[in-house]
């Protein structure tokens, strides 16, 4: 029974990682294509950059989930075998490398979008709108960079300030989610649960809702409330079928006794 369980968890995680790796490959191709378009159309507006930055945030969230799944596998390392565990770790490292490639491409696109010729033929209203978007992006990216550097308190404060100033932008649901994550990585799970709930309450249609629900389940599990954790993970699998979050939720449910 133990061997079957371990094989199931290992296979499920390997499949998730393979699917995510394929997703990263597709993302890289898409970003390359969009980057080429940005070089040609730099004089238009910053919308392509906005979309790419949001995509990066989404991919980072996926990476967070995969790392959580990896942590859960560490306890089964001996059962899974060193070779299989090493293969999974190698795949995760490859995904991290692909993440860096996408971020580099995004930076190239950002530079192209700031070309002086982009100002030709742009109205004053358009310039103001572009300046406002740039200000929003800079504020969001500053907070997110702090998170990536594991400066969780600083990141949290900046995201909180961001939400006070920009409560209803396309970045707002992500900002709220990263606040929850900052508490989660500090192992302050009760506070993380409350912050994830704000994502679900304030941005129920946002793309961070399934991530928030999943991490709520993980948080309850970490404080020993298996009953609540199971209910939330089952809800993830039910409400978001076919997603990475649903697959991770099912794999975690298989571990809970």
Give a brief outline of the structure.
The chain has 257 residues and is mainly α.
Can you characterise this structure?
This protein is an all-alpha fold and 257 residues long. The chain has two domains: 1-122, Methane Monooxygenase Hydroxylase, Chain G, domain 1 (Up-down Bundle), CATH 1.20.58; 124-257, Alpha Horseshoe (Serine Threonine Protein Phosphatase 5, Tetratricopeptide repeat). It is 82% helix and 0% strand. The protein is built from eleven helices and no strands. The protein has helices at residues 2-40, 47-74, 77-80, 82-113, 124-148, 152-165, 172-185, 189-202, 209-222, 226-239, 244-255. Helix 6 packs antiparallel against helix 7 (172-185). The model is unreliable at 1-12, 41-46 and 74-79 (pLDDT under 50).
> What is the correct CATH architecture of the largest domain?
Alpha Horseshoe
Specify the CATH homologous superfamily of the largest domain: Tetratricopeptide repeat domain
Point out poorly predicted stretches: 1-12, 41-46, 74-79
The CATH topology of the largest domain, please? Answer: Serine Threonine Protein Phosphatase 5, Tetratricopeptide repeat
Mean pLDDT: 74
Q: Tell me the structural class.
A: mainly alpha
The figure for the number of domains is 2
Major sheet details: none
Indicate the overall shape: globular
Order of helices and strands: HHHHHHHHHHH
């Amino acid at each position: 029974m133990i061997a079957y369980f371990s094989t199931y968890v290992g296979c499920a995680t390997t499949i998730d990682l393979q699917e995510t790796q394929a997703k990263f490959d597709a993302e890289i191709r898409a970003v390359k294509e969009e980057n080429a378009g940005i070089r040609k159309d730099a004089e238009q507006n910053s919308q392509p950059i906005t979309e790419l930055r949001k995509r990066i945030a989404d991919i980072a969230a996926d990476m967070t989930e995969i790392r959580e799944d990896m942590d859960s596998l560490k306890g089964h390392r001996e059962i899974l075998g060193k070779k299989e565990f090493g293969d999974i770790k190698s795949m995760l490292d490859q995904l991290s490398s692909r993440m860096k490639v996408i971020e580099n491409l995004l930076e190239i696109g950002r530079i192209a979008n700031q070309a002086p010729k982009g100002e030709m033929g742009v109205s004053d209203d358009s310039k103001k709108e572009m300046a406002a978007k740039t200000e929003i992006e800079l504020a969001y990216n500053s907070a997110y960079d702090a998170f990536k550097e594991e400066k969780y308190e600083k990141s949290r404060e900046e995201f909180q300030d961001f939400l006070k100033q920009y409560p209803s932008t396309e970045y707002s649901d992500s900002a709220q989610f990263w606040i929850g994550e900052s508490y989660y990585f500090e192992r302050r799970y009760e506070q993380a649960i409350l912050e994830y709930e704000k994502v679900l309450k304030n941005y129920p249609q946002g793309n961070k809702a399934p991530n928030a629900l999943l991490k709520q389940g993980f948080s309850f599990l970490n404080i020993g409330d298996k009953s609540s954790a199971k209910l939330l993970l089952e809800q993830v699998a039910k409400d978001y079928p076919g997603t990475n979050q649903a697959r991770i939720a099912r794999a975690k449910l298989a571990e809970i006794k």
